[in-house]
Structures are given as structure tokens and as C-alpha cells.
Write a structure and sequence with these properties.
The chain is α+β, with helices and mostly antiparallel strands and 131 residues long. It has two domains: 10-46; 50-128, Alpha-Beta Plaits, CATH 3.30.70. It has four helices and four strands; from the N terminus they run ααβαββαβ. The protein has helices spanning 10-22, 28-46, 66-75, 104-115, and strands at residues 50-60, 81-88, 93-103, 120-128. Strand 2 (81-88) and strand 3 form a beta hairpin. The radius of gyration is 19 Å and the shape is elongated. The chain binds nickel (II) ion.
């Protein structure tokens, strides 16, 4: 571990402290690590590198054909989908988390297609990296 001094304008330091509070980080060093890592992950996604992530979906399984359509889309990406967890939230709603790995553009395409399905109540891609 190396130590170095950082000079920041008052407003940037205030922003950094806000990140510490918002992300419940223990200190400013951890906030800087968090931001560097986040920047690396963003770059990998931008450069279409091998990345990983998780697609979160909430939908009403009674909605016509949504399960079949979702399944059929996922079958278009057999090597990308690592696992699917389906939880029944209540009588109507299901929560699905799909762990994915592969080229960034392909993950985004899969996620966009699923989120765009008619009847999808909520959908989001959590972007991560491989290492
Ligand atoms: Ni369900």
C-alpha cells in the first residue's frame, strides 16, 4: 500500500465526502478506490471487453406470453447466461436475477431486449467486471 497526498478544491472535497456518506464508505481512501474501480468497469463496458453483470427484472407472470418471450430471448445467448434465479414476490409479481458474462455489447443487447418486453414492470442491468 502506497500513501500519497491529494489536493482538492473545497467543492470537490465536499463532493468526495458526499460519496463517502452516500456509499457508506469508511473513509476518503476507500471512496477514491471505489471511484477508480468504477471508472475501470465503465471503461471496460465502453470498450466492449469481457465483462460480467446481473440483469434484474420484475414482471407480472400473468401477462400474456412474457415468460415464453423472456425464455426465448435468453436462449439466443446460451453462453452468456450463467444462471437465472426466479423468486415469486406475491400472487402476481416475479423477481428474476440473471447473472451474465461476455462481451459488453452483447450483455447490453440481451438486457435491452428483456427490459423492453411488453409487461415488464422494472428492469435494470448491474454492470460489473470479471476481475
Ligand atoms: Ni414467479
Amino acid at each position: 500500500m502506497k500513501r500519497f497526498g491529494v489536493s482538492l478544491e473545497d467543492n470537490l472535497l465536499k463532493d468526495l465526502d458526499e460519496i463517502v456518506n452516500k456509499q457508506k464508505l469508511p473513509n476518503r481512501s476507500q471512496a477514491i478506490r471505489y471511484l477508480i474501480r468504477k471508472n475501470q468497469v465503465d471503461d471496460r463496458w465502453e470498450a466492449n471487453q469481457e465483462v460480467s453483470g446481473c440483469i434484474v427484472l420484475v414482471y407480472d407472470h400473468h401477462k400474456r406470453d412474457i415468460l415464453n418471450k423472456s425464455m426465448s430471448i435468453q436462449h439466443d445467448y446460451p453462453s452468456t447466461v450463467l444462471s437465472v434465479q426466479h423468486v415469486h414476490l406475491d400472487h402476481h409479481n416475479c423477481l428474476e436475477t440473471i447473472a451474465v458474462k461476455g462481451k459488453a455489447f452483447q450483455l447490453r443487447e440481451l438486457s435491452d431486449r428483456l427490459i423492453a418486453l411488453k409487461g415488464m414492470k422494472h428492469g435494470e442491468m448491474v454492470m460489473s467486471a470479471l476481475d
